[in-house]
Backbone:
């Protein structure tokens, strides 16, 4: 028996397929979490943080957010493997392999930021130096969200577990709930909080001086660009299963309804500044509504990948370099 399940192919790959185009985009937009994030930017972040008037509680809240980002990226690096193993098409498999690689890079960026900025800043301020893996940084909602995502992915490897419905649930957990709603909303919140060129600074009190962290913002801007591509791939696969595979679209809504309370509980602890949370909630709601519409409406389409990877805060030439 041939080791190739589809040995009848005339050529090995289909570069014109949806996943093939996404894989090419990932290769084109490759970035290095060390080489492409200059050390000078992180050194300036450190100096800005040293100079900022921050209470221990404020500093602890900031590094709790960074700890969650780093742990989340590490978790999805581990949990995507079952999805790659169950997808039959080599073009799909190659794209998911690029996702796993990119999630690993994101993990590396947050590890570097903790070592080069957060720990030295804590020492300079006389605060306790902590580990990014400290249990204090992960509340019950955060842990429940990622435990359920891991279970949804590994269910695909169980006997009888790889069904169209379970694939939809797996994509909804990771690509829609974790990446499209939680991660992109939280990253938007960071850009709003620590960038002069990002979204409106929704959580600054009147007259409060902004803490600018350009090294952090450059890193998460590139991460958000990668995740735009990941979300687009997930939406396409779910839409395909719902529109053409006969999966009931209600599964999408049911899965997200189960996970949204965990997302809300996680986001509220990351940006608990005492300020109005409405802009953050509106951003998350708008993202989710658009994703569901694209999946369930037959006339809707997944935006071009070039649009999905465009993120405010970094121009096209910088992202492409």
Residues:
């Amino acid at each position: 028996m041939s080791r190739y399940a589809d040995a009848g192919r005339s050529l090995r790959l289909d570069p014109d397929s949806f996943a093939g185009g996404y894989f090419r985009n990932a290769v084109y937009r490759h970035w290095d979490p060390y080489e492409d994030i200059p050390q000078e930017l992180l050194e300036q972040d450190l100096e800005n943080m040293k100079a900022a008037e921050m209470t221990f509680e404020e500093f602890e809240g900031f590094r709790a957010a960074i700890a969650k980002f780093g742990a989340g990226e590490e978790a999805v690096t581990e949990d995507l493997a079952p999805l790659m193993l169950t997808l039959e098409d080599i073009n799909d498999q190659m794209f998911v392999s690029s996702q796993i690689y990119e999630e690993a890079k994101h993990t590396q960026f947050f590890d570097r930021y903790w070592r080069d900025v957060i720990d030295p800043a804590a020492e300079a301020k006389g605060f306790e130096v902590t580990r990014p893996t400290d249990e204090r940084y992960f509340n019950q909602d955060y842990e429940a969200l990622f435990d359920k995502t891991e279970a949804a992915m590994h269910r695909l490897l169980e006997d009888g577990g790889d069904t169209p419905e379970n694939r939809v649930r797996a994509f909804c957990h990771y690509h829609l709930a974790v990446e499209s709603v939680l991660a992109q909303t939280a990253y938007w919140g960071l850009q709003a909080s620590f960038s002069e060129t990002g979204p409106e600074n929704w959580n600054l009190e009147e007259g409060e001086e902004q803490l600018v962290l350009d090294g952090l913002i450059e890193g998460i801007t590139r991460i958000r660009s990668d995740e735009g591509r990941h979300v687009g791939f997930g939406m396409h696969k779910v839409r395909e299963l719902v529109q053409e595979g006969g999966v009931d679209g209600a599964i999408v809504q049911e899965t997200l309804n189960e996970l949204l309370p965990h997302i809300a509980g996680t986001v509220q602890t990351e940006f608990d500044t005492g300020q109005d949370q409405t802009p953050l909630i509106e951003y998350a709601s708008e993202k989710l509504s658009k994703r569901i519409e694209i999946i369930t409406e037959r006339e809707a389409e997944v935006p071009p990948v070039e649009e999905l990877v465009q993120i405010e805060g970094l121009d096209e030439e910088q992202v492409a370099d």
